[in-house]
UniProtKB/TrEMBL annotation:
It comes from Mycobacterium numidiamassiliense. The keyword Cell membrane applies. This is L-lactate permease. The chain crosses the membrane at residues 90-109, 268-289. It is found in: Cell membrane. GO terms for cellular component: plasma membrane.
Amino acid sequence: VLALVANTAPVAFGAMATPIITLAQVSGLSTETLGAMVGRQTPIMSAFVPLALVAIVDGRRGMRETWPIAPTGGVVFGLGQYATSNFVSVPLADVIASLLSALAIVLLVRARRTRAETQPAEIPAEAEPGETSTDRRASVLRAHAPYGIVIAVFVVCQISVVKKLLETATFAVRWPGLNLYTAKGTVSALPKFTLNLLTTPGSDTSANSLFGALQVAAATKAGLSPVLMAASNSSGGVLGKMISPQNLAIGAAAVEFRGKEGDLFRRVVVWSLVFLAFICALSGLQAYVLSWMVP
């Protein structure tokens, strides 16, 4: 449940912003503009995801005990996403935000521990000192090696020479009949980006490739911002990952919880709807009230 709920806010910029790059290709909009718009939506949700995870584990008591730490991690991650996607590099948004968030949490925990150590504590005379253990540097490096390798691979793949080499082996599959999938009638900014959640494709990249052009066309006909609607397609699509059938099946199999996908669904669907309502409200405000947030 924790993994499914946590796998929301970072998804739009995941895999070196592959979902946004795909969305730019199918929508005709620039990657930088879409990344900047998504960077003004998902970071706000990111600030609340750590609190949701703590609430799932330990309820209100856990939120009280981790109150300074959880919001700090979420807020720093969100600020890192916003700053990186708008001013540095869209593909590096999650990487830089994650590093900044981890650094902020470590510094906060050390500061709290140092402050606690400076306060005298009453220790009984007969009490024996406890044993302390620290992880060896080699163990720490092995634990972090997979993440470093993944980051290195995606960074290398973003180099222009390597990207052009990989594009020579790219095979585009054209699906007949997609041009018949059009939107008709009056369109509002509120329900459009729930399409990804309702269809639960399980992949923000796949959802963007399927519905990105549709959202832009519908926004143009409705007089809405194509950038906002396309970005909201990606921001809202990440919420479908936690309730998609394949992700539920994979999550259940990973923890030897086979046959209990329905139980997982009931646990996570509430959070999916809560975050969806938040994204709906935010995108609606950005369409009509906070239009200055749209690049």
